[in-house]
Give the backbone structure.
Amino acid sequence: MIRLFHDPVADTIAACNQLFPDLGNIQIVFEIAPTRGINKRWGWTEFDDDGNLLCVGVNVRCPYQFVPEIVAHEIAHVVAHKEAPATEDDHGPTWERYFSLIFDTYNENLGGEKVAHK
Ligand SMILES: [Zn+2]
């Protein structure tokens, strides 16, 4: 049996679940997406017109070492959207706060220290 320990993607998801246990079911899908041009994207979060979460996606071409950050980035969008759907710009203070919180929790869970954010 082969086992993988300290998977950074799983650790990021664990930090998100720890912080936001009431987010509901979120499925993160890996899909092929452009990596160049105006349609390039490494991750995405899509909502319908009523503000319901449709999907969280990660570009399957994203280098593995960046996937934890992409997941944290997109989950911060989900949480920020729940808090301030109509007023929050894409990467405003609410999103920044949640992204930093996920990052800090991930690091603390691995025995690291909190990193001061702006
Ligand atoms: Zn974003």
